[in-house]
Amino acid sequence: MANNSTAFILPQWLLLKEPGMTCRPHSTIIGMLAVYNIVSTAVAVMTAGPFFCQQKQQFWNWKRRTLDRLLPWLSCGSGREDERRLYGQYSFWPFTISVLGSVAIALAAPLLAGISISRNHEHANRWVLIEQWSTRPRATFFVVTLNLIMAVVHHRKEISAGTHNPDLQEDGYLESALIAIFTEFFVGFFGIRFLWEQAQIRSSTLYQSSTPCTTLGTEGNPSNCPDMEFGANGLVMAIVLNGLVTVILLLGVAKNKIPTKFLAFLGCTFITLQCIFMFSWQIWTSFLHRATDEMYCIESSTPIDVIYCLLPVFLGLWRLAWSARGRRDSSIVP
């Protein structure tokens, strides 16, 4: 792509309005991003509550009793204490599957956005759009914060005593918080290449939305194109720091040290996750305010809006289905 002072250029992250298009106002896009996060947070907290976990537990208990009656030779016959000791071994795989499924569902959002947007823009780079939308503000910080608050409220006595009785765990708040942290780890790094390239742009402090886009700001001259440089460096640093914290938490989960010894350390994630949300929100709101509707034209798409709102529901149900709570109790039913 030529970069000179006279020819109009179109960076890959911009989408010009085509004839016959009706562009969605950018204020509406910002509002929809907020709605997606509200729905995601509400669903994550509700599906981790005692009611849904108890319903799942009853289902697994019924399934286990049915299998024991129909196929009694499949019952291992081990005692309650033996199975409780084995919990740390076989709960690893449901937790891992829950994380991997959550990552796949979270990545489905930018994938659907990239495919939907590129259909109406013949020359759009679909992969760049997928990377761009993977940097959108996500509700991980609020999901983790509210779930940990609910976990502390429901298990205050156990936490203060430094003990954890599996039989008293009637919710999935802590597990949902951990899954959200690990999911953010993988999804955050997915768009880091796009962010790094945006961070290399030298934006003009005198930018006006009506200025023709003639330079990208990568060869010494300030860019006069609407970009996502503002806050990109901060978001990259926040993602990397969050990755380090997540690795430490992952080691703690592998050693089965949660929630007693590592619960206090979970507080460190508040800072990194809050920074990720703040920088990503800053990047998107700044970009959408600087770019005109005609330079970044996203057409209204009701199916995509519905899918985006349903994805948190699928995510919450997936976490509930693979949570260790119901599976453990169903295996130690007398």
Could you please describe the fold and organization of this structure?
- The protein is an all-alpha fold and 334 residues long.
- It has one domain.
- The chain is 63% helix and 0% strand.
- The protein contains 13 helices and no strands.
- It has helices at 26-47, 50-70, 80-90, 92-119, 126-133, 140-154, 156-161, 173-190, 192-199, 232-254, 268-290, 302-321, 324-331.
Q: Could you state the oligomeric state of the chains shown?
A: single chain
Give helix and strand order, one letter per element, not per position: HHHHHHHHHHHHH
- The fraction of residues in strands falls at under 5%
Specify the overall morphology.
globular
Total helical elements: 13
- Count the strands? 0
- Alpha carbon gap, first and last residue: 70 Å
Can you lay out the helices and strands and say which pair or pack?
Layout: H1 26-47, H2 50-70, H3 80-90, H4 92-119, H5 126-133, H6 140-154, H7 156-161, H8 173-190, H9 192-199, H10 232-254, H11 268-290, H12 302-321, H13 324-331
Helix pairs in contact: 1-6, 1-11, 1-12, 2-13, 4-5, 4-8, 4-12, 6-8, 6-11, 8-10, 9-10, 10-11
